[in-house]
Amino acid sequence: MKFRGAKALTIASVIVTYAERSLRDLVRDHSRSEIKSLDSGESDIRIQQRELLESIVALLPSEKAAFPINFLCCLLRTTIFLRAANSCKNELEKRISVILDHVTVDDLLVLSFTYDGERLFDLESIRRIISRFVEKEKSVAVFNGGDFRDACSTAMLRVAKTVDAYLGEISTYVDLNISKFNGITNLVPKGGVGG
């Protein structure tokens, strides 16, 4: 399709449809009440799913904003669940960090919970995504001759509010490691969250 001149958004649409059909039970925007418990063993099916997922991620067009963020979050959760290659996980984390200002609390919750909805995943992916976004915003502020501490962009303010609400949602889970919670809290500039 690319060689025939198809636009990135057309290719993205085909990839989303293919991923949702091929990995039907994994790549969906689940709410925690609907999540089925899936076998976490290393079966042949799981290995095939991992290889398919890694192939799908390798085909993603280079345009970072070509995909909806909820789809990318579902793909990343599937990557974590299937224990796909680090290169696959890193690519998805980079793509999400580029458009993080469009993320919702539900998107972050999709990334945070296992498929049974009862346990938290390792929150390192979320920490890395937010950290990349903050670094990008700092670079833009410095490039534009400003001081990052004095002015937060509209995008940073949106992300800060979303992260604040997200932390409120996950704070009640007993298996939440306090140092990881604080690690996420400290990433967002203090002026970015309403006070």
TrEMBL record:
What the entry lists under InterPro entries is as follows:
NPH3/RPT2-like, NPH3_dom
Give all residue intervals belonging to the NPH3 domain.
Answer: 1-195
Highest taxon, organism lineage: Eukaryota
Alphabetical UniProt keywords: Ubl conjugation pathway
Question: Where would one find coiled-coil regions in this protein?
Answer: none
Which family does the record assign? Belongs to the NPH3 family.
Kindly provide the name given to this protein in its UniProt entry.
Root phototropism protein 2
Annotated source species: Abeliophyllum distichum
